Amino acid sequence: MAKSKKTAEGSEGGGAEQRRLQMVDIARLAGVSVSTVSRALNGSDLVNAETRQRVADLARSLNYSINFGARNLRLQENKTVAVVVPFDAASRQHISDPFFLSIVGSIADALTDRGYDMLLSRVDAERLDLASHWFDSGKAIGVILIGQWRHHDQLNEMAARKLPLVVWGGEMPQQLYCSVGGDNVLGGLLATRHLLSLGRRRVAFIGDANLPEVWLRREGYVQALAEAGLTADPALELPAPFEPGVATGVVQGFCAARQDIDAVVCCSDVLALLTIQALRASGRSVPQDVAVVGYDDMPLAAYCDPPLTTVHQPVAEAGAELVEALLGQLRGERAGPRTMPVYLKLRQSAPQSGA
Amino acid sequence: MAKSKKTAEGSEGGGAEQRRLQMVDIARLAGVSVSTVSRALNGSDLVNAETRQRVADLARSLNYSINFGARNLRLQENKTVAVVVPFDAASRQHISDPFFLSIVGSIADALTDRGYDMLLSRVDAERLDLASHWFDSGKAIGVILIGQWRHHDQLNEMAARKLPLVVWGGEMPQQLYCSVGGDNVLGGLLATRHLLSLGRRRVAFIGDANLPEVWLRREGYVQALAEAGLTADPALELPAPFEPGVATGVVQGFCAARQDIDAVVCCSDVLALLTIQALRASGRSVPQDVAVVGYDDMPLAAYCDPPLTTVHQPVAEAGAELVEALLGQLRGERAGPRTMPVYLKLRQSAPQSGA
DNA sequence: ATGAAAGCGCTAACAG
DNA sequence: CTGTTAGCGCTTTCAT
Q1: What CA–CA distance (Å, rounded) separates B214 from B353?
Q2: How far is the alpha carbon of B96 from chain A, nearest alpha carbon, in Å?
Q3: Does domain B77-182+315-342 have CATH number 3.30.1460.30?
Q4: Region B204-212 average pLDDT
Q5: Per the database record, which ranges form the HTH lacI-type domain (chains A, B) (predicted)?
Q6: pLDDT top residue among A100 and A216
Q7: Does domain B1-76 have CATH number 1.10.260.40?
Q8: What is the mean pLDDT of chain A?
Q9: Cα separation, B221 vs B188, whole angstroms
Q10: What is the mean pLDDT of residues B162-181?
Q11: CATH level 2 (architecture), domain A184-313
């Protein structure tokens, strides 16, 4: 408000705490015009090598860095990508699932490697469409959304509006947006098939099939059951959400009620952990009485009690895939959804039959 | 490069996929000047209420959002904060410790609540000073750094350069920068005192005391030992880093070599997990033979094997504290370091004596 | 109550 | 090779 001092606060005094250095300053000091400084700093060969060096040195010694806001405005360019993590509005649960956090880290690396900045934010999982704000406002050139949640429809609509968008999640029929994700059907299949190979026959499935990824995993689950001549029993399915706060009670109730199950496929490692606790609370041991398979293979999965047998998701590669998909889209490429391989990591919660 | 089409691509055709809507567009459609649109959208009462409404409606129906780059440039203002997570250059370990990730989530919430954006990035832990780039380049109004690591000196220098900076970490003597952190001395004290109260006498300490936070925790460790009439035995201290990749081998070697220890204070929950694994590998049980206390109380600490007794850090409050400290600094307040209380969360890895 | 014009820090024609 | 000039999209005096 009250800061209209234009040119003042020069180089004389000792208290230049405030104004940020800009091109005109280094231009003056170097005795050239701002254009020359601009060119020099951008390594243009239109400027004398000696001058270029002098300007560069001066800039470095003064610790000058360019004002990207101005540069971007002028160039109509932007190197920022918005990464948006949905949160559960009801519980207002924070970003906390280790898997989502890992994906974010992976994206951060991929963006950094390519010279992009990452704007991280959260959005109400019921209003995924609000994520387009980052693009609309020019703050980001595109959006990477972590998870589809319950709003496939909103995502399709965003894609229809030509929002540069990539979503971590499963590939659904008639999908307009670009998704990148693990092979969920395969994951569900491998997990279930393994449990059946252990001789288990009452295999429960824990996860909210309203979410595309879970729906697909359930497809794999059903398919594996069919291979073994079994059909899915609705009584063995529990639509628990990913948020531990909400899931805990639900899972406890389920485990206490279903004393007949001998195996569980969980849709995240955190759910698997909760399930194991609930099973023990109801007097059963894991894996002896009930074998449990998790999903994600989070970094800590190997250090749980017992170490989790789980479906490994390709987190390390995920970041690069998501970023490449987005940049490809911006280059005008018509990138379709991408499904990445997953595999079953065997540990103690559902060990190899011999173990 | 090849996009100099100025005014064209108007309202006629059907293929207006490209150019982003701007004030001049809605001005034209509303039949007013851009100044009026600007004022209307900013709720200035200099504009006729009816006009203001009409403009607002039009903007909303067209899904217009303002270009913040331009706005910020004009207003010399910026609502973006850089959050920087150091990474280990040697191992190129990703952001992965659950504790750091939790802190980031907490900061994200705090910033969102206050209407700020968060730019997330990583920096080489040996060159923390590079984090100032976000400020220097005008991309962010300040920097929140997660952890002090080995470069207290660089942080002091950054603060001396008047960089708006807040660091998660411990309070060190002669510190020029603003830090916010848990009470590390107290944490170390509580952990050690508890183990001693269990009758343990050979208490190891695992953590790299070159890091200020660890150094302070060790102070508490030494203090608790002194209370019990003991002195720290250098042979019981292991300077293991936080990165699991590097730490694993070091911890295994230590546990195999030191068969005499009966308790361990670890400087993170992940280190505690690694330690427990290593102890078991060398034939000892936890907590019977060796009791283990972790640090952080990460979300999964309760679900490990065994559930971890650990020093609880105030993650949920941390975000707000860090953000407030930074904003205070920007308002010119001379905010000193802030130390937040911690407490010991008792679980099975070092249970209450009765258990 | 509204419009015209200037300018935030930078880049890119366009002249020299 | 270098300087002058115009303008990115917006806000804000200054005139109406």
Answers
A1: 26
A2: 7
A3: no
A4: 96
A5: 23-75
A6: A216
A7: yes
A8: 90
A9: 5
A10: 94
A11: 3-Layer(aba) Sandwich (3.40)
